# Entry
Amino acid sequence: MALSIETRDVPFDFPPAQGLNDKSMQLLSYRLRVFDLILRELGDPAGRHYVDLGAGPLIFAQRALRHGFAVTAVDARPPWTGAVYEGIAHVLADVRDFPLDGFDVIGIVGLLYHLRLDEQVDLLRRCEGRPTIIDTEVWCPELVDALGLGSTRVQPAATTLGYSGATLQETRDLWSSFGNPDSFWLDEPGILRVFEESGWRSATLMEPPYFSRFGRRRWYLLR
Ligand SMILES: C[S@@+](CC[C@H](N)C(=O)[O-])C[C@H]1O[C@@H](n2cnc3c(N)ncnc32)[C@H](O)[C@@H]1O
# Structure
């Protein structure tokens, strides 16, 4: 069955009165605003368990907890700040073989693009049947060229499966891939095709996509 696509507008606007002039703060604030909206869209959190895959500094896990979900945060690395948050169970594990049974809502925030393409498909298949929230880099060569964002670490590539995108050379930073020397960044048609081929029936695209250091990113809600 074909993937049905709808869009939701979350304007990327920061009135001067908000005093958020710093670009990185604007980005974080926007990401949190979209995440909050998606959580609200999912309905009553009572009795539901959210798993945050690639949870990093636990910013989004804390948000889900405050929203009312039971929360498990999974990352191959310990929480970046070393802080422990009451109510968040932290599991040190590789998401590529972490079992997802028993969770009701799945978050893949800032993680998908740190996986290889086959690992992305496998993870998205294993999320089946649960609302899945994704925030990811979207390969957009026109934007990269227009803004002069080219980097030797990101190189256009095509896969044997016919997807076009780019290969990212990973670092060993806290926010990088765990276990992959490089990862695959899909372009938007490729992302939507992967959703469909992983068995998803409905994707909500949060508008607009927003800027990253390497081009653009977007939030998606899969159901
Ligand atoms: C870009 S950070 C995103 C952190 C957080 N979700 C956010 O958006 O603020 C990517 C996170 O995914 C984790 N990660 C990368 N590959 C992983 C893997 N195979 N298994 C578990 N965690 C992984 C990294 O350790 C890092 O904390």
